[in-house]
Amino acid sequence: MLAVAVVLVVAVFAGRLVYVQAVRGPSVAQQARDERLSTISIIGARGQITDRDGVALATSVERYDISVNQRLVGEYRGKGAPDDPDGALGVAKRLAPLLGADAAVLGGELVGTRSFKYLQKGVLPQVAREIFAMRLPGINVDKVADRVYPNGPLAGNIIGFVNSNGQGLEGLEASLDDRLKGTPGTEVFERGAKGQQVPGGYFEGTPATQGDSATLTIDSDIQWKAESLLNEQVAATGSDSGTIVVMDVRTGEVLALADSGSRDPNKPGDSAGGSLAPSVSNVFEPGSTGKVITMAAVLEEGLVTPTDRWTVPYKLTVENGQTFKDSHEHETQHLTTAGVLAESSNTGTVQIGSKLTVDQRYRWLERFGFGSRTGIDLAGESAGLFGDRNNARTPYVVLFGQGVSVNAIQATQVLATVANDGVRVQPHVVRGWTAPDGTFTASKKAARTRIISQETAATVMTMLESVVDEGTGSTASIPGYRVAGKTGTAQNWINGGKQGITASFIGVVPADEPRLAISVILHNPRTSEYGSVVAAPVFSKIGAYALSELGVPPSGTKATLFPTTW
Questions:
Q1: Which residues in the chain show pLDDT less than 50?
Q2: Whole-angstrom Cα distance, residue 427 to residue 218?
Q3: Which residues belong to any copy of the Penicillin-binding protein dimerisation domain (predicted)?
């Protein structure tokens, strides 16, 4: 009976062995291998954002996150010495020096029942390699791509920032996210008892793909100078905020777009919030810089000439009973059309602009881009606003830049259009893209639209030179260069109805061979409300710096100006 029992038991085991190894062998082996497989995600590096010369403004660097599975830490067995005990304390003593942490505090972080908890993020590669080599139970080392902005707040209003997962949240990081972000890959491998890859074991992988890199039109040096001058002037004048735009009139490339108080994208949480780039999202009434459109319109329509004579009082009452006045009280003046622009006379501009029908006035504002987005490749651009057209006063005040609101790019584009022989070029900040293999592809050529004739543009440019040579914009002059431009002082409504002031100067240099359109805009300056006092001197400084950086030669001719008085 015992022999029979032994035979039966052996037969059962033999049958089971045949069943497991022969019948179910392949499926059991597959199940066992599946349990040994590990799948990890490989990060697709995010493309860089660089300035026009390849200077990195945003880049991704290799970093590691250190985390813990608290349930496994207790498996650690030290050497039994006081400085290497078993369990969480032993792990903490070995890990703390590398993480720059207190061992006792770190030990507390390691104790618990959580399967995942971050200990430290953004650890440098050399530190991560040392931690990984220790093979500490429960301690995980995961590679991540950390987004770094090497120049801090420089162009932070344009660049924006990403979240902890590397997804663009603001600025170009957000608007260009689909192309900047890489495609993640995966690795599936057979692991050993301690998580190591088994040599010769199963392995399958899909490589990660790096994102494309964006090359901007921004010049880092000019951007830095613009931000520095702007922040200094905002502080010196007690302004609420300000903007500087530097644009190439020939190509529409924005070389600098500075907003005061630009946030550091490395520390986006330190900012008080608000609009990232007020220069494109916030609007204001341009004031006297808007007179350029009025002058271009009446000249293009053939209604006046630059030498027509006007009797210009301090106050003027029009046929519907509305009264307008100039910024300074003065005796009645005898000015030409060019003189009205040079002296920035509101009453003279109303007389000249009244030759346009109301429909013509608004049609020309729209033709110059007011009321519609410029199409610049930055998120959040405002189209601007028009005041109540049926108001008895509005159709007149639009002639001198009130009753209409624009963003800084729109305001700058008016003079850029005049300087470019009357052709508007769509402004943009992305110059092109570089693929991971190094192939550069330029952006599509900017759209070009003729707004006024070349003859009218040349006439307006000469009139704008009178503003700097003989009129309100003399403080914008740059030694050795001919400058054309216009001052602006506009009343604005802020903070739910409180009266505010926007002071500005927008100009072109060199006036004889136009290259740059530059605007300096300050909101609510306390030291003076006039653009000639607070904005024009800054234009002179940033203009001189940009011309030097770009190697633009001094003007080779002298201006032949129209008479401004009679």
A1: 272-274
A2: 12
A3: 44-198
* Helix, strand, or coil (residue 134): helix
Question: Which residue, 210, 251, 172, 267, is CA-closest to 413?
Answer: 251
Structural domain range at position 174: 43-75+86-94+119-216
Residues 255 and 307 in one domain: yes
pLDDT at position 273: 46
Same domain, 387 and 291: yes
d(CA 124, CA 132) in angstroms, rounded, equals 12
Shared domain for 153 and 295, answered yes or no, is no
Q: Which residues pair with 56 in a beta bridge?
A: 50
Q: Is the peptide bond before 510 cis (omega within 30 degrees of 0)?
A: yes
> Distance of CA 536 to CAs 17, 49, 56, 550, Å?
94, 32, 32, 21
What one-character DSSP code corresponds to residue 163? -
Query: Is there a single domain that holds both residue 178 and residue 323?
Result: no
288: annotated active-site residue: yes
Query: Which residue in 294, 280, 457 sits closest to 363, CA to CA?
Result: 294
228 shares its domain with 176: no
Q: Which helix (H) or strand (E) holds 359?
A: helix 358-367
| Beta pairing class for 49-50 and 213-216 | parallel
The SS3 of residue 495 is: coil
Strand ranges of the sheet holding 203-206, from the earlier edge strand across to the other edge: 37-42, 185-190, 203-206
Cβ neighbors of 473 (< 8 A, separation 6 or more) are: 467, 483, 485, 486, 487, 505, 507, 532, 536
Q: What local confidence, expressed as pLDDT, does residue 456 receive?
A: 98
Extract long-range pairs of 4-8: CB within 8 Å, 24+ residues apart: none
Counting the structural domains of the chain, the total is 2
The pLDDT of residue 208 is 77
The pTM of the full predicted model, rounded to 2 decimals, is: 0.83
- Shortest CA distance to 256 belongs to which of 406, 381, 420, 412? 412
Residue 295 sits in a domain of what CATH number? Answer: 3.40.710.10
Q: Which among 220, 239, 279, 288 is annotated as catalytic?
A: 288
Q: What are phi and psi of 101, to 5 degrees?
A: -115, 165
Residue 231: what pLDDT? Answer: 96
- Yes or no: say if 240 and 523 are a contact pair by the CB < 8 Å rule: yes
Eight-class DSSP state of 290 = G
Say yes or no: 208 and 225 in one domain: no
CATH classification at residue 64: 3.90.1310.10
